Fold this sequence. Notes:
Blueprint: H1 11-20, H2 24-41, H3 52-56, H4 69-86, E1 118-120, H5 121-149, H6 158-183, E2 185-187, E3 202-207, E4 213-219, E5 230-232, H7 236-241, E6 249-254, E7 257-267
Parallel strand pairs: 1-2, 4-5
Antiparallel strand pairs: 3-4, 3-7, 6-7
Helix pairs in contact: 1-2, 2-4, 5-6
Amino acid sequence: xxxxxxxxxxxxxxxxxxxxxxxxxxxxxxxxxxxxxxxxxxxxxxxxxxxxxxxxxxxxxxxxxxxxxxxxxxxxxxxxxxxxxxxxxxxxxxxxxxxxxxxxxxxxxxxxxxxxxxxxxxxxxxxxxxxxxxxxxxxxxxxxxxxxxxxxxxxxxxxxxxxxxxxxxxxxxxxxxxxxxxxxxxxxxxxxxxxxxxxxxxxxxxxxxxxxxxxxxxxxxxxxxxxxxxxxxxxxxxxxxxxxxxxxxxxxxxxxxxxxxxxxxxxx
Length: 268
């Protein structure tokens, strides 16, 4: 049942109501993405005015190579499913938010990796630790597989199948990390603040319509973390600020209209 018009909130109000019902931990993880969705289509836009084609196009402005891409879509899907439950829409708009497929090509195996990924020293070290842990796990799984394979009862050998499947995932991630670290360029975080925005820079933006101040760090898609303000260089906002300096005004075209921001500060 759809609520009467005077009960249906705006996107901004709906976002706030949805987040208020989450646990503090889930709210912290979800808030950035849910508010971004509401801002993209218009904070004051009535939720009832959101149509399936609008939702279907949302994934197109995200970068499929961003870390947490699927998780970010899942957060918005949860928001939209909640809206249907509350009666703010006639259909479950979450079903129209589909994952965008990465483009395949002759070099598809490395399509998500730039020739040289720009990583902070902290992120580089984190990936090295992850690689070491995965190598240890791979050795553990080899032993598990050998023990499970020694079991003569093959009618139900779930441990063997599970270990083989996990090792396949582990080896795939090991290869991915090796390629990333080999191609990585480490950002020198001790450099003087750059005059123009680049990967690794922190920026402060002022929303020229609302006056809201937004703080971000421009990162490689593999370092994206919306909950910590890290946005991808491949995102619409990331593309708009690259090469820009303090005081410049940028515009992003969104369904809600032109989103205008002034760069207040750029630093590293």
